[in-house]
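$ ./design --mode recover --in tokens.txt
reading tokens...
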């Protein structure tokens, strides 16, 4: 069958196998940019270096863009190109780990449930974004009032949410006496496996406590730490790849060369030997996960809000500004690192400096606007957990405070020149209402802190913290983001 990867203009070698070799033992929900450049690439490398036959059935549950990706994958033998872009060179690979690609609009709910209930389906992995779990970010509990969850509770055999699909698939597997599968979350959440487990058990318990008990006994939800900077695909990045590849691949994407995957080794129906291709299996992921969520993602969010407001289009652009570079490193080392307890062999100063180098990669157009998305789902694990540490022990948290203030200013949806900001967030309607009634000053800070799903109840009830945040927010609005970041470095509050 013809595909772009058999075209004579192709400039690199196509894969040595096709999907006929593969068995659909992995079903992945959320075939987005990150999964294609991370888990699927690890699996490809394992297929290239062993007799492993584990293939991935990709499922996109949401959006027209998710459907288009599935349609495009089907047009090109389920293969696609990943461009690993370093500061000085780019390496192209054609990934051939996909066995199937599905979307509800193309295959129906039944088609996806068929894939999830095949006897050989042993792992269901997830990159569905932090909001895909339909949980309260502050507590990790399932939000039973979430519109998708409300739909699925009323129609459990024809779900729409990832959680609903998981529970219905497990119900059918139990009924047909099929083996359970492992649910492998690969999203940027603290204890992501536990978040997935809490959501699945919360949903199952609401429809059938006996099913919830079966899931609790038979299904595993290992935690993972996942790391690779994979910016959203842009027309520019695709054109650049097409020029190097020799053909146009609508499923192509660019990423950094660095990749890391730390996985809790807890699989009920087997797993591929990903440690043969660079992944690490451990008993406790938490130290690695907290290090990454706070040192990398925390500084990413700080740079996203203060960088966007300061007029920087990408993270690499912020790194060109000495004050931003210095502030990011100070946030990492002075306010995130002290909250961590890691094995002695991990050198956090070295890790932080490596992060600054990674952030400075001029080849990646990682937009501050993209990282600013879904802040209501990101702030707790990236900035607020560390903040609580400093409040408990009485240590300085000025960078964390400015990062939170930057988010509060960003969701006002108007930049420092009065231009509109496209704020993308599941709670955007809440922000719009607050923007109308509390557009500025101490009242704005208090109103945003009152969003319990983000800040819980302890933070708004801490008068010293509230006063500090109100002062920081006022300084940010008066001076502007760039000056506020510069004043951080002079120790000026
Ligand atoms: P993306 O936008 O390319 O893909 C998001 C995927 O999630 C799509 O397949 C979409 O259909 C699905 N999705 C979105 N909302 C959903 C919902 N409510 N229910 C079910 N599925 C939903 O984004 P990308 O870059 O693939 O990132 C996805 C997640 O991967 C992130 O949210 C993060 O948790 C994790 N991640 C991303 C990294 C990156 O650099 N892009 C790196 C490390 C982790
Ligand atoms: C970023 C992450 O978009 C964001 O929120 O902070 O996707 C980041 O690129 C990855 O976690 C890096 O591993």
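writing sequence...
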């Amino acid at each position: 069958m013809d595909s772009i990867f058999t075209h004579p203009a192709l400039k690199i070698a196509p894969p040595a196998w096709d999907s006929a070799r593969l068995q659909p033992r992995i079903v992945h929900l959320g075939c987005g940019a990150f999964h294609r450049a991370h888990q699927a690439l690890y699996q490809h490398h394992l297929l290239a270096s062993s007799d492993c036959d584990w293939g991935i059935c990709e499922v996109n549950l949401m959006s027209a863009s998710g459907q288009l990706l599935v349609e495009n994958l089907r047009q090109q033998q389920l293969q696609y190109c990943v461009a690993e872009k370093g500061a000085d060179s780019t390496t192209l690979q054609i990934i051939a780990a996909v066995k199937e690609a599905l979307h509800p609009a193309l295959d129906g709910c039944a088609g996806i449930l068929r894939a999830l209930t095949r006897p050989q389906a042993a792992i269901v992995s997830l990159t569905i974004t932090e909001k895909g779990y339909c949980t309260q970010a502050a507590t990790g509990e399932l939000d039973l009032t979430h519109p998708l969850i409300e739909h699925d509770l009323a129609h459990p055999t024809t779900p729409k949410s990832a959680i609903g699909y998981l529970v219905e698939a497990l119900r059918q597997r139990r009924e047909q006496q099929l083996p359970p599968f492992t649910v492998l979350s690969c999203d940027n959440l603290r204890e992501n496996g536990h978040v997935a487990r809490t959501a699945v058990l919360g949903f199952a318990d609401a429809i059938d406590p006996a099913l919830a008990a079966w899931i609790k006994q038979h299904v595993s939800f290992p935690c993972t730490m996942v790391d690779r900077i994979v910016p959203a695909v842009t027309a520019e990045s695709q054109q650049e790849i097409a020029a190097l590849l020799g053909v146009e691949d609508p499923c192509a994407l660019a990423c950094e060369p660095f990749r890391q995957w730390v996985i809790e080794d807890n699989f009920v129906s087997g797993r591929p030997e990903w440690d043969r291709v660079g992944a690490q299996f451990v008993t406790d992921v938490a130290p690695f996960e907290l290090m990454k969520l706070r040192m990398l993602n925390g500084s990413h969010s700080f740079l996203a809000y203060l960088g966007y407001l300061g007029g920087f289009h990408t993270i690499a652009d912020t790194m060109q500004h000495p004050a931003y570079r210095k502030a990011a490193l100070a946030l990492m080392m002075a306010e995130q690192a002290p909250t961590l307890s890691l094995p002695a062999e991990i050198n956090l100063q070295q890790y932080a400096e490596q992060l600054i180098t990674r952030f400075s990669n001029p080849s990646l157009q990682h937009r501050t606007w993209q990282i600013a998305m879904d802040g209501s789902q990101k702030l707790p694990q990236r900035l607020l957990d560390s903040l609580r540490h400093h409040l408990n022990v009485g240590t300085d948290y000025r960078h964390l405070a400015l990062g939170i203030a930057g988010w509060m200013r960003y969701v006002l949806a108007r930049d420092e020149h009065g231009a509109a900001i496209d704020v993308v967030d599941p709670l955007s309607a809440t922000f719009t209402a607050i923007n109308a009634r509390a557009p500025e000053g101490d009242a704005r800070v208090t109103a945003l802190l009152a969003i319990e799903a983000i800040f819980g109840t302890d933070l708004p009830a801490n008068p010293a913290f509230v006063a500090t945040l109100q002062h920081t927010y006022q300084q940010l609005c008066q001076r502007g983001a760039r000056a506020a970041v510069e004043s951080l470095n002079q120790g000026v509050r």
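exit 0
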